[in-house]
# Entry
Amino acid sequence: MDANVAFWLACSIILFMVGLYGLVSRKDALRMIIAIEILVTAVNSAFITFGYIANPEYDPISQTYSLISLAVASGVIGLALALITLKYKETGTVDVSSTIKRLRW
Amino acid sequence: MIDLIIMVLFTTAIITGFLAVEVQKRINSIIWMIVSNVAIGLLFIYIGAQYLGVFQLLIYAGVLAVLFIATANFIEPGDIKLTEQKHDVEGEKVIEVHFIRKRTTGTILFILLSLASIYSFFKNIPITLVKETGITDISVANKRSILVFWYGSGCPCQPVDFRLATLVVSLVLFVAVFASMYIQQYRANREVE
# Structure
């Protein structure tokens, strides 16, 4: 395997770990969404790296899937931002741990 | 041998991504997120995924960053107040704007990155134009080559850099982010008054 490709994959995994760490360690909803965005970015860069392995010149399939993933993730993040705005209006905070019981049935 | 530019961009993305989830203030967190996404977008453009890189810059570093700043403003306006109150000699309240100084690290890095990219862009254009297209005189006969050089061919079989599109997108993002922060500053000033 090319050294560049190995480095890209390693960096994608580290970026994924950073996102995972942010997702599990933060209680602020806004930072959790930022962590989700970092996760999606890491997965997209891994996609592009695999596409580079398949075809070093130009690989349209991996780029197309990454583009779809990017669009879907941006929609999800927009919805999540709307949800936390609503949550702030209802509860006065965006801390997910303090009001998690209210989300139960 | 690992390419130096790829190493720098990926390391920047990882470090700023970590800072984005780790720093205290929300607005600093969002600024680090923008820097991380810009690094990833430039990386995509560099390794040959131009469309994806431009979309990454447009959507993640642009639209979602502005959405994040707007949401941070909605949920806690005091957190992103960009002004500082000081009392003058007569004891009256004077509101001073310390926009740049308050956001020192992220803002200066952002401005330096933008200025460096714009400078290198304009500095290298004549040499790159001659090297890639072989054109030495800019005339009507060479119009198509010059247009392809600036705008890209639009055909996946001939990957090009989309230089003008990337420059315009980055400038628009720069203006958008700072305009949205300035609007928040204005709102915070009004709330203080």
Notes: Residues 3-103 of chain A form a domain with the Helix Hairpins fold (CATH 1.10.287.3510). Chain A touches chain B at residues 3-4, 7-8, 11, 14-15, 18-19, 21-22, 25-26, 28, 30-31, 33-35, 37-38, 41, 44-45, 48, 51-52, 57-58, 60, 63, 66-67, 70-71, 74, 77-78, 81, 84-85, 88, 94 (CB under 8 Å). The CA atoms of residues 47 and 62 of chain A lie 6 Å apart.
